[in-house]
Design brief:
Radius of gyration of chain A: 24 Å
Largest interface: A-B, 47 and 45 residues
Structural class of chain B: mainly alpha
Low-confidence stretches of chain A: none
Distance between the termini of chain B: 11 Å
Number of helices of chain A: 13
Largest sheet of chain A: none
Shape of chain B: elongated
Oligomer: heterodimer
Mean pLDDT of chain A: 81
Strand content of chain A: under 5%
Structural class of chain A: mainly alpha
Shape of chain A: elongated
Strand content of chain B: under 5%
Order of helices and strands of chain B: HHHHHHHHHH
Largest sheet of chain B: none
Number of strands of chain B: 0
Order of helices and strands of chain A: HHHHHHHHHHHHH
Helix content of chain B: over 70%
Number of helices of chain B: 10
Chain lengths: 304, 269
């Protein structure tokens, strides 16, 4: 909670640092002294800064982010309209990252130093270094424009058509997922290698358990904590990456809303979306912490 | 195997740095010379990366763009080390209220996804390569401070630090002769990771239109220019992207190698 308050102070303060009068910026060359004065009063810009902050933060806490400077739409409503897109994109990408990354790490960690391990390591290193916006362009070039398989842009809500919705989320999610999957794969490998040396694994092997049973019954549950930690961190990164990916694939999400607002200097919107994305980032980190306890009974015990 | 990874990373970084530094002296096509006749001409022996929509050499632009990429990354990491390093050192050494006073505000900066914070900062302060470096430094400072703090916390309870103190070493001597050298290696690993990230974020910001300003050649800007021509001239998007990846890969390999060198337990794996 103090963190969230700090975040709101930072975001608010940052937007006050914008050179020039926001009212003049909004009205542009049409600005007349009367118009500027009216707008300043309308948005409370004539009040002391502390009072402005208090007003903004107390309303924001109730989900009221005020009106957009330009279209005069409630910002809270705009965010709510776009949030499902960003959330679906992030969840789909998380799923892709887990489905690609964890097996990649198991493949490598299972047989250290083998061909599979070295291949997985190389894929991991290259994947981590892959710029996601470039990957997005390449996927559009190859799969959408080249093979004509999936749409290169646009969004179909899941309420309209499930199939088309999945088609529109597929490439963006994959774009967002690949580099995250690589990170996850590298970490899974490290975690597996760490557990494999433990005595209980040696024991399981000694009593003649098959490699597959050892991997799934003994190694994976014990490697799960670092894997979940990193997955949680990756979801956070994806919230940031969504800005880039939503822009490339022209998805109507909160990320693109943020970038558009930055480009057109629509500061009340920037202020609100940055805070919302930041709060989501924090929430994900919190949920990751809670997940530890669910996975590992030892942590649950020690917290009591 | 790991030593080889680090060495390959160093070779890639050294080669790219040399290219970037020598760019104006190399016999490359001009990165800014516009020529209608050569617009969108494909890769050839003379111009292996082809020409862009304005007839500029893509190879020439890529090599010149490395100056911005690497320059921004180096500047941002150095700035973050200069600011975050001492902050982490004080926080870790003093603990107690100075620790809280320093680390809590930095936690707030870390509570945002890095690229989001960078975009917001660029939105407030405007575009340009110096500002990109500044924004990245703001994003990196808490990361550096945390790494330094953790290293200091781990080092200062070591027996040899205790010994030095028992022998009457002054605080500055304990800090600079015993703690700093031992905190240096994790910081180097982190710096290498941040270099890789810096190249990625600079390119992403420029690609989104909130980074380096045209006509400065930047790999991100080249990608956003090339998008409009990607079916006619795929080389305009393929080569700048590969160039970004190569540089990032170099720093990631270095970080990997360094990490294992620092941590002998990992080396044993």
């Amino acid at each position: 909670m103090p963190l969230l308050l700090g975040m709101s102070v930072l975001v608010f303060g940052l937007m006050r640092l914008v050179p020039g009068d926001p009212a003049v910026v909004v009205l542009g060359f049409k600005a007349t002294p009367e118009g500027v004065k009216a707008l300043r009063e309308e948005f409370g810009l004539d009040k002391p800064v502390v009072q402005q902050y208090a007003r903004w933060v107390s309303r924001a806490a109730r989900g009221d982010f005020g009106l957009d400077f330009r279209q005069n739409e409630p910002i809270g409503r705009m965010i709510l309209d776009r949030l499902p897109v960003t959330i679906e994109l992030t969840l789909a990408a998380t799923l892709c990252a887990a489905v690609i990354g964890v097996p990649l790490g198991l493949l490598g960690g299972g047989r250290r130093g083998g061909v599979a391990d070295r291949t997985a390591l190389t894929i991991g290193l290259v994947g981590v270094s892959l710029p996601d916006f470039w990957l997005g362009i390449m996927l559009i070039l190859g799969i959408s424009l080249g093979a004509g398989l999936l749409p290169s842009a646009g969004w179909v809500p899941i309420t309209e058509s499930v199939v088309e919705n999945l088609q529109s989320v597929a490439l963006p999610a994959l774009t967002l997922a690949i580099s995250r999957a690589a990170v996850l794969g590298r970490l899974t490998r490290a975690a597996v290698l760490d557990v494999v040396q433990k005595n209980f694994v040696q024991y399981a092997r000694a009593k003649g358990l098959g490699e597959r049973a050892i991997l799934f019954r003994h190694v994976l549950p014990n490697a799960a904590i670092p894997i979940v930690t990193v997955l949680g961190l990756q979801i956070g990164y994806m919230l940031g990456g969504a800005i880039v990916v939503e822009t490339i694939f022209t998805l109507p999400g909160v990320g693109r809303m943020t970038l558009d607002a930055v480009l057109e200097r629509n500061y009340p919107v920037v202020q609100s979306t940055v805070l919302v994305i930041g709060a989501m980032f924090m929430l994900v980190n919190l949920l990751t912490d809670i997940a530890y306890g669910l996975i590992d009974p030892r942590i649950r015990q020690s917290r009591r | 195997m790991k030593a080889r990874t680090a060495l390959s990373g160093v070779i890639v970084i050294a080669a790219l740095t040399a290219l970037a530094l020598l760019a104006p002296k190399l016999p490359l096509g001009s990165p800014t010379q516009i020529s209608k006749d050569h617009a969108l001409v494909g890769p050839s022996l003379r111009e292996p990366f082809g020409m862009d929509d304005l007839g500029r050499s893509v190879l020439g632009r890529v090599v010149h763009a490395y100056r911005i990429s690497l320059g921004v990354a180096v500047a941002s990491v150095l700035l973050a080390l200069l600011i975050g390093g001492p902050l982490g050192l004080v926080a870790g050494y003093a603990e107690g209220w100075p620790d809280h006073l320093i680390m809590r505000p930095l936690d707030v900066l870390m509570a945002f996804p890095g690229i989001l914070l960078a975009i917001a900062l660029m939105g407030v302060f405007g575009t340009g390569s110096l500002l990109v470096a500044g924004a990245l430094a703001v994003v990196y400072t808490p990361v550096v401070a945390r790494v330094v703090r953790a290293a200091v916390l781990a080092t200062k309870i070591e027996v040899y630090v205790e010994g030095a103190r028992a022998m009457g070493a002054t605080v500055p001597r304990v800090v600079f002769a015993h703690i700093v050298p031992n905190a240096l290696t994790p910081v180097l690993v982190q710096a290498s990771v941040l270099m890789a990230l810096g190249i990625l974020i600079e390119a992403a910001l420029s690609f989104l239109g909130v980074g380096v300003r045209p006509p400065t050649p930047s790999l991100g800007l080249m990608l956003s220019d090339g998008r409009g021509f990607m079916t006619q001239a795929p080389w305009m998007v393929i080569f700048p992207g590969l160039a970004i990846m190569l540089a990032v890969l170099g720093f990631n390999m270095l970080a990997d190698g360094l990490r294992d060198w620092v941590d002998p337990q990992a080396r044993a794996h």
